[in-house]
Amino acid sequence: MPGASIPAMDLLPASWPALWAIETPLAELVVRAAVLYFGILLLLRLMPRRTGGELGTMDLVMILLVTEAATHSLGGYRSLGDGLFVIAVLMLIDYTVNALSYRLPWFERLVASPPLPIVLDGRLQRRNMRREFITEDELRAELRAHDIEDLADVERAYVEPEGEITFLTRKRSDGDAQGAAGP
């Protein structure tokens, strides 16, 4: 439109202290952070272990929530103080959960999955494999990656809480090794 003026763009904030002021009630920020942390932790606890890759569940929750809080402090909140406070609360919650997990075995079992056996005495545990969405081909690829030629050589294999597959192989006696090598 002719005669319409374009508003001037501010290069700097009108008030620097207002940029850091916490605008949201502190209790609300604490409750939001705690509900998100434990809600996502619960949802990830219900998911197959390999969903999170090599990260521990609590580590993944922490990374996701800190990223989310940082995103809000960049644009969702008008105050950087709100975002920084939420990040501090998340770090405190994560520290507390890790400390409790270390000191209280029942709490560790509550927040972390135990290792799940997928091979016992050389036999596939298909029910557990289905639960974790591990195909026989994937398991055999893991065997090859660990230089294990035959499933019969595996005493036990587990899907660890972080999603990694670990193997315990049978101990071979010297007589078995010499017999296999020949005269």
Explain briefly what this protein structure is.
The chain is an alpha+beta fold. It has eight helices and four strands; from the N terminus they run H-H-H-H-H-E-E-H-H-E-E-H. It has two domains: 96 residues, no CATH class; 66 residues, CRO Repressor.
SSE diagram, text form:
Layout: H1 16-20, H2 26-46, H3 57-76, H4 80-103, H5 105-111, E1 116-120, E2 123-124, H6 126-132, H7 136-145, E3 154-159, E4 165-169, H8 174-181
Antiparallel strand pairs: 1-2, 1-3, 3-4
Helix pairs in contact: 2-3, 2-4, 3-4, 4-5
Descriptive tags:
single chain; 183 residues; alpha+beta; CRO Repressor; 4-stranded antiparallel β-sheet; 8 helices; 10% strand; elongated; disordered C terminus
Task: Walk me through the structure.
With 183 residues, the chain is an alpha+beta fold. It has 2 domains: 16-111, no CATH class; 116-181, 2-Layer Sandwich (CRO Repressor), CATH 3.30.240.20. The chain is built from 8 helices and 4 strands. The chain starts with 15 loop residues before the first helix and ends with a helix.
**Low-pLDDT sequence parts:** 177-183
Count of individual domains: 2
Strand content: 5-15%
Radius of gyration: 26 Å
